[in-house]
Amino acid sequence: GAVVSQHPSWVICKSGTSVKIECRSLDFQATTMFWYRQFPKQSLMLMATSNEGSKATYEQGVEKDKFLINHASLTLSTLTVTSAHPEDSSFYICSARSGFADTQYFGPGTRLTVL
Amino acid sequence: AQTVTQSQPEMSVQEAETVTLSCTYDTSESDYYLFWYKQPPSRQMILVIRQEAYKQQNATENRFSVNFQKAAKSFSLKISDSQLGDAAMYFCAYRSFGNEKLTFGTGTRLTIIP
Lengths: 115, 114
What we know:
The complex is a heterodimer.
Chain A: E1 4-7, E2 10-13, E3 19-25, E4 32-38, E5 44-51, E6 57-58, E7 67-73, E8 76-81, E9 90-97, E10 105-106, E11 110-114
Parallel strand pairs in A: 2-11
Antiparallel strand pairs in A: 1-3, 3-8, 4-5, 4-9, 5-6, 7-8, 9-10, 9-11
Chain B: E1 3-5, E2 10-14, E3 19-21, E4 24-26, E5 32-39, E6 46-52, E7 60-61, E8 64-69, E9 74-79, E10 88-96, E11 103-104, E12 108-113
Parallel strand pairs in B: 2-12
Antiparallel strand pairs in B: 1-4, 3-9, 5-6, 5-10, 7-8, 8-9, 10-11, 10-12
């Protein structure tokens, strides 16, 4: 149980284009989903928290207009990197938590490379 | 703000031996959760073990156990009978009771020597 998937696992895009990453909870309803960014050999940095049907709450320093988060259903959240630039290249990880659980379950991550 | 410190960037252990990874945290709260996550080369974060602060008994999951010292704000992970598959980055994480956010430490890279 508690499986979270991400799609795609790896994406390359040209500078200036937008990329959408999906995060799905496969066997539970995720009332809250989280998006993290991880640079090589570093820890996870929380970007935003989203609750189903509500606007995402972004961490300080994260541009909400650049990283659009949508949590339209209890099993799906999306992160769209708009007008991507090479500095946005990173590993993006989502996690999900059900309403009564105190543990986050993580997706396998998406490696984004912006050329 | 809460902080989590992992003072060992890298550790190594012989296969079948025991290794302990350290973690300390800083908080003014009394109710919280602590976690150890494993990130193997695949980069999939895997929950290893969790501890509720109100529980005095140390959590155990098969070969993995913790030494939770609340007064000292210490939460170390002991891996017994180390196996090659245990090689990974290990992250200690903190979550306060009323907050959904996880605060991660900087991680410890564990190498298993055959």
